[in-house]
């Protein structure tokens, strides 16, 4: 006994728009009025009905000068069509609820400098555009941000390293500079001269931990000068590095964003470094594939506005 070839259900069941049209014809008693209600032309509606009749192999609608009425087969198909459309409406309502839940929250992971000095302003602007969005912020170094994104624990991340971490896509949203700072009593502050890259490399510094964007940039910049000396202190936050430098413990290397107030008040002194560039890119990142959606997409757009971000390009 031969078996009929399998045909996909989508080829055997009329499309949803055709079923909605049939239901409108049944309710209004006129193909023309049904077409008008659905926003299509009468010839298009007639074509859609004929196509459905050919697909099912039965006549569904009888047309006359007085209007259109369903055949017996058409009435039966209309009954089935009503159930399909109701199921589709329930599906749509569920999908909209899912989108609503997704679009009402945003999980952001950011490296320390961005979390402390840029994100607060961006998030205030986001709340003005999307009031009611619940935002959670996870701060850590750039390596930790990448891990959170890859583990599905964050929707959008911000990092300060040399490149986009593996497994992520990203875009530069700002540029930043690292600067060397010391307390006013430090010898480098008293001489007033620039230190060389070699001197900086040979000096034990107050540094962020390995895995931080600050440390990555500094390691790369001084690699050709013998690399960094063993740290004088290795600390896990920008605030801690800044406090140690203010106390006079030694020279620290921090984002220009982080020390503007202290330099302005002369609690810290900026030391110029000759022969080496300590600029870096600040990036928004997300798992490889489609870009951020919902509030993540809106936050990303805010970060790239020229008036909303330090150093934007």
Automatic annotation (TrEMBL):
Domain of life, per lineage: Bacteria
Pfam families xrefs: HTH_1, LysR_substrate
Keyword ATP-binding among UniProt keywords: no
Span of domain HTH lysR-type: 14-71
Keywords linked to the UniProt accession: DNA-binding, Transcription, Transcription regulation
Stated family: Belongs to the LysR transcriptional regulatory family.
This protein's name: LysR family transcriptional regulator
Organism encoding this protein: Streptomyces cremeus
Taxonomic lineage from the root: Bacteria, Bacillati, Actinomycetota, Actinomycetes, Kitasatosporales
